[in-house]
Amino acid sequence: MENADTTQNHSAAEPEKPIGPAIGAIIIVLVLIIGAFYFWGSKLEKTLPVDENATAEEVLAVPDTSLQSIQTQGNSDEIDAIEQDVNATDLQNLNSELNNIDAELAL
């Protein structure tokens, strides 16, 4: 009988661990994840609209200004001419085609 009393007292002496902080941390993480998905979704909506009914011929018929500017560059191997060609090249929209592909695949 004495053994049973000591085990009950031993288990009663251990303080219960509060689960409130753990639940609070989980809620904060969930809110951060939901916020990240919200901002990611709003970023996807800002991409250029894609014409899903466009045929391959219509897509190929649209002039590519970046390609045209690259094709008009000089063929000189002088440093000044190369610098002028590099400065004239617009690299700002280099990833726009990849962004369109990502939008189409919903990545």
Strand proportion, as a percent range, falls in: under 5%
Largest sheet: none
Determine the fraction of residues in helical runs and give it as a percent range: 55-70%
Ranges where pLDDT stays below 50 over 5 or more residues in a row are: none
Element-by-element helix/strand order: HHHHHH
Mean residue pLDDT: 76
How many separate domains? 2
Oligomer: single chain
Q: Which overall shape is indicated by the principal axes computed on the Cα atoms?
A: elongated
| Count of helical stretches | 6
N- and C-termini, Cα separation: 66 Å
The strand count comes to: 0
* Structural class based on helices, strands and sheet pairing: mainly alpha
Please give a structural write-up.
- With 107 residues, the chain is mainly alpha-helical.
- 66% of the residues lie in helices and 0% in strands.
- The longest helix is centred in the first third of the chain and has 26 residues, at 20-45.
- The radius of gyration is 31 Å and the shape is elongated.
- The chain starts with a helix and ends with a helix.
- The relative contact order is 0.08.
Question: Secondary-structure map with pairings?
Answer:
Elements: H1 2-13, H2 20-45, H3 56-61, H4 65-71, H5 79-88, H6 96-105
Summarize the structure.
This protein is mainly α and 107 residues long.
Write out key terms for the chains shown.
2 domains; 0% strand; 107 residues; single chain; mainly alpha; elongated
